[in-house]
Design a protein that fits this description.
The chain is an alpha/beta fold and 299 residues long. It is built from ten helices and eleven strands.
């Protein structure tokens, strides 16, 4: 009953002890401050821990489906803390949890007023013209799209790009392709219209959980309901339960242009009057795949 109440009438199974973790206290604890913000994101700059730092700053672009702290869970497993301890000046984009007021925002808006303004802010804060970048999940998909657009425009502000379990070619997107036919996209659009022009975070979280139902649904049904166990203090699953909304136009563009038609990889995507070609991108690229990732298959 508590889980149904928390899900506002829909079952929202607890995957972790939601009362144990507190942002800034025992999760997302690497010291930093907001140095820039607009209506779709805040830019966090993390405090240095070394006497000297590398000349080129690092900008991390996380997914806007979840919160920014996936790479800064607890000190012992925080990638951001590790980067800072290596002498890097690290910036992370923290995307807004959009209300219906942002329903008209587009994927191009997220590039121009998201990534591009973040790059401007990083340059202003450090005095450096270029930044190394990391794109994670859908943040990486956006980064690859942006790099193709930047190549067309002669914009060379990105020094290198690293991708964490991020797709640019959606030809083999695994089980998520089951959710992107015309009928299901039409149903998703109606669902977003009913919610005021946004996709509720728990809707996307449920879809992702269904892709690994044994791990993310049934194991908790057994432990929580049949065995009466309390959920574990698991930082990653706490983060996984902290989902955010998405603007209608951004999400439909993502599902149609990438998943359904795979236009970026085919060289057919048009943005800002340009037909994008990933082959135009000539900066150093590093790609990291997750062997068991259920959203971005490694093969």
């Amino acid at each position: 009953l508590e889980d149904i109440d928390r899900g506002h009438g829909e079952l929202s199974i607890r995957q972790a002890d939601m009362n144990y973790f507190k942002l800034g206290e025992n999760v997302a604890t690497t010291p930093g401050k907001v140095v820039f913000q607009n209506d779709i994101f805040q830019l966090i700059q993390y405090a240095p821990t070394t006497e000297t730092v590398a000349k080129t700053p690092m900008l991390i672009v996380p997914p806007w489906i979840n919160k920014f702290y996936i790479l800064d869970l607890q000190p012992q497993n925080s990638f951001i803390k590790w980067l800072v301890d290596q002498g890097r000046t690290v910036f992370v984009m923290s995307w807004v949890n959009p209300s219906p007021a942002l329903k008209e925002k587009t994927f191009e808006d997220y590039i121009k007023h998201g990534l591009f303004e973040a790059l401007d802010a990083v340059s202003k804060a450090t005095g450096e013209k270029k930044a190394d970048t990391i794109g994670y999940c859908i943040g990486g998909t956006m980064l690859s799209t942006a790099l193709a657009l930047m190549a067309k425009k002669g914009d060379d502000r990105v020094n290198s790009a690293t991708f964490f379990t991020a797709q640019a070619d959606f030809k083999e997107s695994g089980d998520l392709l089951l959710f992107v036919d015309d009928e299901q996209l039409e149903a998703i659009e109606k669902q977003m219209d009913a919610a005021g022009g946004v996709l509720e975070g728990r809707a996307m979280a449920t879809t992702f959980n269904m892709l690994r139902s044994n791990d993310l649904i049934w194991s908790f049904v057994i432990d929580n309901y049949l065995k009466g166990k309390d959920p574990a203090r698991f930082d990653l699953l706490f983060w996984n339960s902290d989902a955010t909304r998405m603007p209608k136009k951004v999400h439909l563009f993502y599902l149609r242009e990438f998943y359904q038609h795979n236009r970026l990889a085919k060289g057919e995507m048009v943005m800002d009057g340009e037909t994008l070609d990933l082959g135009d991108v000539d900066i150093p690229i590093f790609m990291q795949a997750g062997e068991t990732d259920h959203i971005a298959p490694h093969n």
